[in-house]
Design brief:
The protein has helices at 3-32, 37-56, 62-68, 72-98, 100-109, 114-126, 130-146, 151-171, 175-179, 183-207, 221-250, 255-274, 282-285, 292-314, 318-327, 331-343, 347-363, 367-370, 373-388, 395-420. Helices cover 79% and strands 0% of the residues.
């Protein structure tokens, strides 16, 4: 294993992640140029935050292909699990869209206006099948990463994003979209998701071949659940952190403005460091190399690149130009984005360390030892938001401080747990 091999594996994933983050800016830019821009940004931020929470539970389903699947019987078991999990989570989105649960969650719990609630519920209805599509997409990505074909998931992500951006430009002047602006981000998101699914499905069918089971131990549903539930808990917490923050922020005097600012800040702030989450794949993808020190040094270098990038953009006048002319937000919103984005500069170090530790846990099937990090993150976010509630800080600033604090505590806890936690049982239960 060489640094060149690590780079070749990571580069497609990094490029795909960056392009995906940039597409979010096109999406925000499109919403910012629509009628009722602030309301649309806030509504989509609320709706996609909650749908993302549910779909995000299955984000690490790709670890099935990367870590668990060794033969065709294992693939069939994982596929059935992915279908069942995806349908269950899609059913939860349907409940939010078409039962009083959605109105209670948005209007009562978040405290937003009836008009904004109606827009969010419409978005929920459009996103009902989204978790199922995401579940299958992630499984196919995992099988491709197992054979180190990281290029195909990158093509899928890039192709989906390209079509999503094209959809934004096509729909911007369309009358029925301008009359109902939430359709712009919803339709653009769907076009991208379906295109990505189609490409990774093609890659899976074209390149992935599983051996017959032979003498290998069968992969049963109970072991899949045993392996996955801690990952699902972690991803649910990670995906749910932003909606939780929205609950605290939405009811404040500057709630709607703060939600709009956070929609912009989350998307822009995630660009320089979001790709670092991909480093968790390295220990499993290169387990035959047996050179963890080299992987650690490579990850540290990635973190320094991200940190330098954020310093060059978020701490210089370039930020105003990006916000006003690229994203296209108003000067009033742009003025509130600066401090939260500076706070985001702390994320690369935390995310690099967390990604490496997660990678070791996945390689060793020690997912249960990773689980305690999830409640620690939530508890930290709640405590910090509560402590800052009486401070004279903009809602978006309070949110980003709480988010970084949650990330930091989560990383410390998972580090401690992996160091001290017991080994997981193997597939045979020993």
């Amino acid at each position: 294993m060489t640094y060149a091999q690590l780079t070749r594996f990571m580069l497609p994933l990094v490029l795909a992640a960056l392009v995906q983050e940039l597409s979010g800016q096109f999406l925000n830019g499109g919403m910012a140029r629509m009628p009722q821009a602030v309301e649309t940004l806030a509504a989509f931020g609320l709706a996609y935050g909650i749908v993302g929470l549910l779909a995000g539970i299955l984000t690490q389903a790709r670890q099935f292909g990367l870590v668990l699947i060794e033969h065709d019987q294992g693939y069939r078991t994982v596929f059935r699990f992915g279908i069942a999990a995806g349908l269950s989570l899609s059913g939860m989105v349907a409940l939010l869209a078409w039962t009083p649960a959605g109105s209670w969650l948005i209007a009562d719990l978040h405290g937003v206006s009836p008009a904004l609630t109606e827009v969010v519920l419409l978005a929920f209805a459009w996103f009902v099948p989204f978790p199922l599509v995401r579940s299958l997409t992630r499984i196919y990505i995992g099988t491709l990463l197992r054979i180190r074909r990281s290029d195909i998931p990158a093509y899928g992500s890039g192709g989906g994003i390209g079509l999503s951006i094209l959809t934004v430009f096509i729909l911007l002047p369309v009358d029925f979209v301008r009359q109902d602006p939430i359709l712009l981000p919803v339709l653009a998101t769907w076009v991208g998701a379906l295109a990505e699914f189609a490409i990774v499905l093609w890659g899976h069918r074209r390149y992935v071949r599983f051996e017959t089971q032979g003498e290998a131990a069968p992969l049963d549903m109970s072991y899949v659940l045993h392996f996955f539930w801690p990952l699902a808990l972690i991803m649910a917490v990670q995906s749910g952190t932003r909606p939780l923050i929205n609950v605290f922020i939405a009811g404040a005097a500057d709630g709607t403005e703060a939600l709009a600012v956070l929609t912009v800040v989350y998307a822009l702030g995630h660009i320089p460091y979001g790709w670092l989450n991909e480093v968790r794949n390295l220990p499993s993808a290169f387990r035959d190399g047996n050179d963890l020190p080299r992987i650690r040094r490579f990850i540290a270098g990635c973190g320094l690149v991200s940190l330098a990038w954020m310093g060059a953009v978020f701490w210089t006048p370039a930020l105003d130009h990006i916000l006003l002319h690229w994203v296209g937000v108003s000067p009033a919103l742009a003025a509130h984005c600066g401090v939260p984005l500076m706070i985001f500069t702390g994320f690369p170090i935390v995310v690099c360390l967390r990604g490496y530790i997660h990678g070791i846990g996945l390689l060793q099937h020690r997912t249960k030892a990773m689980a305690p990090s999830a409640p620690s993150r939530i508890a930290t976010v709640v405590l910090v938001l509560s402590a800052l509630s009486g401070q004279d800080l903009h809602g978006a600033t309070r949110a980003t401080i709480a988010l970084l604090s949650g990330h930091t505590v989560e990383t410390l806890v998972v580090w401690w747990s992996i160091r001290r936690g017991p080994l997981e049982r193997d597939r045979n239960g020993s």
